[in-house]
Amino acid sequence: MKQCFFAVDLGATSGRTILGTFTSNGLEMEEVNRFPNHLIEAGRHFYWDIYELYRHIIEGLRIAARKGVEITSIGIDTWGVDFVCVGKDGGFLRQPYSYRDPHTVGAPEAFFTRIPRSHVYGWTGIQVMNFNSLFQLDTLRRNHDSALAAADKLLFMPDALSYMLTGQMVTEYTIASTAQLVNANTCRLEDALLQEIGLTQAHFGRFVYPGEKIGGLTEEVQRITGLGAVPVIAVAGHDTASAVAAVPAMDRNFAYLSSGTWSLMGVETDAPVITAETESLNFTNEGGVEGTIRLLKNICGMWLLERCRTEWGEIPYSELIVEAGTCEPFRSLINPDDALFTNPANMEQAIKTYCSDYRQPIPMTHGQIVRCIFESLALRYRQVLDSLRNLSPRPVEALHVIGGGSRNELLNQWTANAVGIPVIAGPSEATAIGNVMVQALAAGAARDIASMRQLINRSIPLKTFYPQDMEDWNTAYLHFKQLTMTNYNG
């Protein structure tokens, strides 16, 4: 009997549901529905609309039911760190804040006055970013937030949506690891940190790992969708963990770049790498599948261009890429991770301001701005990869680019030029594929991640980009390092 897996893949700007099936020809993926994920700005805060996301998931399940698809299981992955406060009656106390909400500006520094930064990093191995759940929760507590004060449980985003489908509350390991609340060595929530923010283990759902069953669809969801008691599986709930599981590598001598709104570059290790060097470089040790650790760095990715396109009236990517390719190379460069680009009112103006502040030519045309973004990202990737080469327990012989950014051939070529090793692009749907893979493992339809990676390599078209014009890119890299020296942290 053919097994069909329903993957819910939610990113910070859009979401989709996908049906995945393994056949003798490999993996077949069919998109069921796709939808936007908009931030809601109200009362000086930014929220996610979890009920709208749930509505779209239900619609995807209804479409599958109308097609007569026999769904083996369902899995949900989302972006990291954000969470929902749940009351004693099981209801959500308000819409969840977005990690882009400005209320956590300066939050790490406030927290580190009570527990030293080195202690927090030593426990968690997680990159310090102001929006990590630890700092969101500490901020809410210091601000006497009424939802947190009344919360009986805290559910990370994929776990909250699974709860809406099943009525079961869990805390999935990979998504929890992004919170800076999980001890990297024990792979459990760290009591010392929970105590500092007034929480206990009881504030979280049953702790589960990728591949464990959460529960079946509630009678209400069965009635609404026309499905039976389909099991919901805890996949790698963090979208990057799902994407990395789907890297189509034939061995482990690789680095990965999950390219989307965020770029996440890293290597896979068998144990946390928590040293003075990784702390100073602000590298993160997030949970992966099959007991692995994702040693990685968060880099601001296509968020820069997505915001510009919003301001420009959604000009097609293809037009912007063609125009960027004709512009003067290395005219203006930026540090993509500068705080100026976190959530500016006008991204184009923020880029121009940065270039002006660093006494560079100001990009004036759309093509010049896009070229500035792409070249800067490629050079930032090299900067991070140079650090990873020193930290990885294995040689880095290729860079696998996965996610939506793997379709950007211009950026892929420039990345290969910058990093000096082959760049292998694809699959673009890596997150959904990884989601399906974990479901397949849970159903006994697959043996292990390594064999499934080899299957993906054989069944999905990949494109390899080889380094070119390296002398020019090496020169540009020297300039980029000088430019970013004042605020570089890994």
Automatic annotation (TrEMBL):
Domain annotation Carbohydrate kinase FGGY C-terminal: ranges: 255-443
Family: Belongs to the FGGY kinase family.
Protein name: Rhamnulokinase
Domain of life according to the entry: Bacteria
SUPFAM superfamilies: Actin-like ATPase domain (SSF53067)
Organism: Bacteroides uniformis
GO molecular function, one term: ATP binding
Keywords: ATP-binding, Disulfide bond, Kinase, Nucleotide-binding, Rhamnose metabolism, Transferase
Keyword check for Disulfide bond: yes
Entry EC number(s): 2.7.1.5
GO BP terms, alphabetized: glycerol metabolic process; rhamnose catabolic process
CDD domains attached to this UniProt entry: ASKHA_NBD_FGGY_RhaB-like (cd07771)
GO cellular component, one term: cytosol
Listed InterPro entries: ATPase_NBD, Carb_kinase_FGGY, FGGY_C, FGGY_N, Rhamnulokinase
All copies of domain Carbohydrate kinase FGGY N-terminal, residue ranges: 6-244
Gene: rhaB
